[in-house]
Amino acid sequence: MSAPCSRxxxxxxxxxxxxxxxxxxxxxxxxxxxxxxxxxxxTALTVQDTVDVSDFRVLDRDWVLAQANAVIADLPVAAxxxxxxxxxxxxxxxxxxxxxxxxxxxxxxxVLRAGGGGxxxxxxxxxxxxxxxxxxxxIATPNLPExxxxxxxxxxxxxECAEKLLPFIRHLLITGGHGDETEVHNRLYYRDGSRYDFxxxxxxxSYHGSGCTLASALSGRLALGQExxxxxxxxxxYTWRTLRDAEAPGRGQYIPRRLPLDLA
Length: 264
Fold this sequence. Notes:
By secondary structure, the chain is of the alpha/beta class. It has one domain (9-245): UDP-N-acetylmuramoyl-L-alanine:D-glutamate ligase (3-Layer(aba) Sandwich). The chain has 8 helices and 9 strands. The protein has helices at residues 23-33, 61-74, 88-98, 123-133, 144-151, 158-165, 210-223, 228-244; strands at 9-16, 37-48, 53-58, 77-82, 106-108, 139-140, 171-174, 183-190, 195-201. The strands form 2 sheets. It has a 6-stranded mixed β-sheet, sandwiched between helices. A hairpin with a 4-residue loop joins strand 2 (37-48) and strand 3 (53-58). The mean pLDDT is 92.
């Protein structure tokens, strides 16, 4: 006996990570944990492990459009989560997809670097996201190094980057954890000047896929109808727990445990 799906559907436009730490697998697991259904459309294929990325290939735009259009024609998309795009052409492809989803929240995770530091697209991709995608996005979730690239402020603080970026986007979450502070500070900025600060205990080690996990969890909370600041807090709390319980299956970074043991 079949029944209609009561879980909100989130269309994920992200790259594939064969190590399973980041990319679409992170999206799927994090969205499952929020009680959502992930509809994953592949934007790029990568060669990477838990240490770093060594190569990537962006898919042809027609293939990405075909995947997204098949989902949109069949499923009630409640939110769209962006991960790795990898090219300026893919930025334009996302804009074409979003024209078919008016009013649907777009959560933009500007994936420009892998956890090991390897590039996942030229800086010009980030600038195209800033100029073209940020204006149609509900929120962007860069970490501080990504925010510095997007704001073109190599040594800028989170506040300085936000000031440069908020003319392009309504809400901006700049995540911390890339320094040596004892607490991680995450800052949510609104264009109207409102601001929320969230802090959490810094965990030892480094993690592969933490940004994907956070952005996907936030997408799920927004798809469920949660108010933005509350959704950000829920997503940050969930992500911290996945890092606390992370494991190191390979030679490199820890991978977040996004699902409970009985589901993993």
